[in-house]
Amino acid sequence: MPDKLILPAEHLDDGKTHFGVEVCVVTYVQERDDNGNVIMVDDLDEKGLQKKTENDLIIKKPKMKPCEFTLVITDGATTDGTSAVFITKPFELDFSNLEKFFKAKGIVVPEALKRLMNNIELVFDALYYSPGKKEELPSDVLTDANKKKEWVQKLLIDEQALKNIYDNTDNTDGKKIITLNDTYLLKFSIKTGNLLASIDKNISNFLSLERASLMVVRCQAGKAESLKNYVKMLNSTT
Questions:
Q1: Which of 143, 210, 160, 151 has its CA nearest to residue 180?
Q2: In angstroms, what is the C-alpha Rg of the chain?
Q3: By mean pLDDT, which of 49-53, 104-108, 173-177 is the weakest?
Q4: Residue 187 · residue 218 · CB < 8 Å
Q5: Phi and psi for 210 in degrees, rounded to 5?
Q6: 80 alpha-carbon distance from chain centroid
Q7: Against a cut of 0.70, is the pTM above it?
Q8: Dist. CA 141–CA 138, nearest whole Å
Q9: Mean pLDDT across the chain, nearest whole number?
Q10: DSSP state of 104
Q11: Which contiguous run of DSSP H or E holds residue 184?
């Protein structure tokens, strides 16, 4: 758990009572040695005995380690654009667990994809999400030229996109309620001993891809300071 106070709301100067929730989440990932290789251990049965094949060979499985991180939910019940959900430090996800999920769903995973998944470490370096305000979409927004222009500018989209939103938004008590202008920051990295080797060993003889990162940011007016503070907090804990 974090050892510092995290303010539960983005806007505290409104005289209202605010609240925040911190949830400690644990996931399990494959443990690797200094060279990035997965550490294998004996697979044991319920009695603690080694599992063996029909040929009396010992069955191995990846050694797993817990990965703990904190998920913070601020002002979770509000719908006025002041709530946020974010992590307080990077955390890992294990792609190899996806194979179990696919199998449960009856999806056959190609061998090349299996090798790829088993050689990848996915790290969420940053994850921040703050929903925008909820507003009612006027019933005549597609037929009233002024309202159509207003909402196209408000949502930063074109007329066709506005029509798609209108057609695909369910009615709630006879109203079409949408969330305006979410703010989010997502950055994740893929780490591997040699990603290309899992696809084609010949390529890995002359080219090695060790790490790749992707960041996606969308920041609405008035939210920049919140994102800056979030990045500052992450940098101080890593």
A1: 151
A2: 24
A3: 104-108
A4: no
A5: -95, -35
A6: 23
A7: no
A8: 5
A9: 76
A10: H
A11: strand 183-191
Task: Identify the CA nearest to 139 among candidates 171, 179, 180.
Answer: 171
Q: 226-235, long-range: CB within 8 Å, 24+ apart, which pairs?
A: 226/10, 226/84, 226/130, 226/183, 227/128, 227/183, 227/185, 230/86, 230/126, 230/128, 230/185, 231/126, 231/185, 233/6, 233/88, 234/88, 234/89, 234/90, 234/125, 234/126
Q: Which amino acid is located at 63 in the chain? A: K
Residue 77 is predicted with a pLDDT of 46
Helix (H, G, I), strand (E, B) or coil at 136: strand
Contacts for 109 with CB less than 8 Å, ≥ 6 apart: 99, 102, 103, 117
Is it the case that residue 143 has pLDDT exceeding 50? yes
User: Tokens 């591997």 belong to which residue?
Assistant: 192
Joined together, the tokens standing for residue 88 give 């307080």
